[in-house]
Amino acid sequence: MVRDNIPKGHSTAAKKRGHDPAVVTLKAVAEYVQLSPGTVSAVLNDSPSSRHIPEVTRKRIVEAARHLNYKPNFFARYLRNKRTYTIGIMLNDIGSEYGGLVISGIEDYVRKKDYFFITGVHRHDPELFARYERMLLERGVEGVITLDLHLPHSVRVPTVAIAGHHQHEGVTNIVLDHKCAARLALQHLADLGHREIAVLKGNPVSADSSERWQAIAEASQSLGISIHEDLVVQLVSESTTPELGYGPTKTLLQRKRPFTALFAFNDISAIGAIRAFQEAGLRVPQDISVIGFDDIKSAAYQYPSLTTIRQPLWDIGQTAAKILLARIEGEEKYPLQVSVKPELIARESTAKAAR
Amino acid sequence: MVRDNIPKGHSTAAKKRGHDPAVVTLKAVAEYVQLSPGTVSAVLNDSPSSRHIPEVTRKRIVEAARHLNYKPNFFARYLRNKRTYTIGIMLNDIGSEYGGLVISGIEDYVRKKDYFFITGVHRHDPELFARYERMLLERGVEGVITLDLHLPHSVRVPTVAIAGHHQHEGVTNIVLDHKCAARLALQHLADLGHREIAVLKGNPVSADSSERWQAIAEASQSLGISIHEDLVVQLVSESTTPELGYGPTKTLLQRKRPFTALFAFNDISAIGAIRAFQEAGLRVPQDISVIGFDDIKSAAYQYPSLTTIRQPLWDIGQTAAKILLARIEGEEKYPLQVSVKPELIARESTAKAAR
DNA sequence: GCGGCATTTTGCACCGCTTTCAAAATTCAG
DNA sequence: CTGAATTTTGAAAGCGGTGCAAAATGCCGC
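ok -> C-alpha cells follow
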C-alpha cells in the first residue's frame, strides 16, 4: 500500500515553536524602512492616526510591506482588535445536498464581504454539538448559523437558526411556511385523486419534523383527507442517504394497509422509498405516487424524477448570512423570525391515483 | 417574509472591542486564588515547571479554574505556543457525497486526537484556492488535506493530497490504483459480453480524470476491447449533481454510434446518464449497462441500483488524517504515496449485453 | 538563633500587533 | 532670530498567556 518513505531534514511542529525567521513581522518591516512599528502599523491599517503621515513615507512603507511580503499575524491582531471576520456554521453532516446548498448560499455571501466560515458537525448529538460549539467560540467566531438543529440554548454570539423553532434570546429563526407546504403537497395529491396517503414523518432529532407533521395533520383535515395512523411511519435513522427512507418504507409495506401516495419527509428519504416500492414490485407513479421535500438537485435526475416541495435552500443560506453579518457589523435590529415560501415542483413521481 | 424586528440594547462587535468583564482570564483566576498567573498557568498546563507545586495548591487552582469556568484564550495561547491543533481541508464543494464520506473519515480521526478542522472551498478555481489557502494558513492550520485538486504548488505546512498526482515537496499523495479499477470494470463488462463500450471521461479539472482515462485506455487494449473515440465524451460541467452526466450522455446518444455499456466517471454522473438513457427510451440494464465509480451511499438506492467501482472513501479520509497528524506531531518520515485498492460492486445496472 | 538547603511562589520578558500620547523635528510668523 | 504652530515620529502600554530565572518562604540541624 505504501510506496515509499523518506526522512525529512527538519521537524515541523517542533520547528515552529521557536522564532521562525522566514515569517515577516511588523517589526521587520519597520526596521527595513527605519521607522517604528507603530508608524508602519498606522499606515498599513490606514488608521485615523495616520492622517498626518506624509505621502512619501506612506508610500515607502506600503512598498516595503509588499516587497517583504508582509502578512499581519492573525492571532496577534485578534488580541488587540477582538475581530476574526469569521462565522461558524453548525450543521448535521458535511456530505448532504441539503446542507451543501445552504452552505453554498452562505459561502457566496460571506466571501463577498470578506468573511470566512468554519464548520462544526453536530450529527444531532448534544455532546458533539457542545464540543463544536466550544471550539467555534474558542476560535473567535463572531456569529453562528445553525442548520437543522434544536438549539439547546442561545449562543453567546449573534445567531441565525435555519429551521429553528424555539425562540432563544438573540436568535433569528428562518423557517419555511410549513402550512403552505403541506397544503401544496396534499392539494396536489388530492387533485390527482389520492385519498389514502402515507407519510414518512421526520426523525424527531430533525428540527422541522414536528412542525411539518403538525402542518400535514392540519392540512389533511381541512382537505377532508384522513391520514390513518397505520400509514404514518417515523424515520429513525440519522442517515442523510436514501437509506433513511428505505427501511421505514419497508415497514410501511409490511403493515399491509393500502395506500396510493406517499408524502416523504424529504427528497433523500423519498428516493429510498421509491427504491423500496420498486423492490416490492410497485411502480412509481402508476401504483404509488411519491412526493418529496426540499428539491435537492438530484431530485430532478431520479427515474422517475421527483415531485417535491421546493425549499429555496440557497436563498435561505444567503439570507441567513446577510442577517448575521449585518448584526456583526453593529446593526442592532434584527428579525426574530423570517418565513420563506415553499413551491410545488410537479415532476414524474406523482400521477393520477390508480383507483 | 419578515415577522418582527426588535431593537437590541447593546451592540455586538462594538462591545467586544473593550474589555469584556464576562470573560475569565488567567489573571482573574490568579487573583481568585491569590497566586500569580505564572503559577496558575503552570498547574493548568501541567507543565514541567509545575513539578514542584504542592498537591494542595494544585488542587486549589484546578478547582478555582473550574469554578470560574476559566477557558484559556486560544489566540493568546497561540502567540506563545504556535499551536492551533487545527488542520485545513481543501475541497471542491461541501455538498457532495464523495467529499462528505472523505471528510467523515477525517473528522472521526481528528476528533479522537482532539484536533479541529476548517475547510476551504476551491471549486476548482485557482483564485478561490489561493484565497482559501491564505485564509487557512493565516488561521494557523498545522497541516492541509486536499481533495480532488491539482495542487499548483506545495503548501508551507505538511500536506496530504487525496487523489493528488503531482509529486510536490512535503506532500503525501493518496491515490487509487486506477489500473486495477479499470481492469475490474472492463473485465466485468467484457464478461457480460459487452464490446461496444462508451466512456464518460472526467472533467480535466478533476484530479483523477487523466489517470483514470489512461488506465481505461490501457485496460481496454489488454482486454482486446477497442473504445471508439465517438463513444468517449468529456464531462464539462463542474457540477457535483447528476446534471454532470446528463448532458454529456445526451451528446453521446446524438452521435448515433451504437454501444451496449457505459463506464461513467463517477456515480453521480452515472445517475445522470441513466436518466438520459431512460428519457431516450433505453432501459438500463436491458439495453445499456451502466457502471459508475466511487460507490457513494446513494448508488445502492438508485433504481436500478448502480454497479460501481468502490473507492474506500471513508478509509481514505481516515488514512489521510492519520498520516497528517503523525507529521504534525513530529514524525519526520512519511510516505510520498499511498495507494489504495478499488473493488467491484456488482448491482443491477449492469447485465448481459443485448446482442 | 542562624546558615544552608529544599520547597514554593513570583516577577518578568516575550509572542506580534495596535493605539495613544508625548516628544522631536520642522515650518512659519513676527 | 525667537517662540509658537504644525508636522512627523517614537515609546510604551496592553491584549492573555507561557516559562524561566530568581526570590521568598519554610525547615533542618547545630
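The longest helix of chain B spans residues 97-112.
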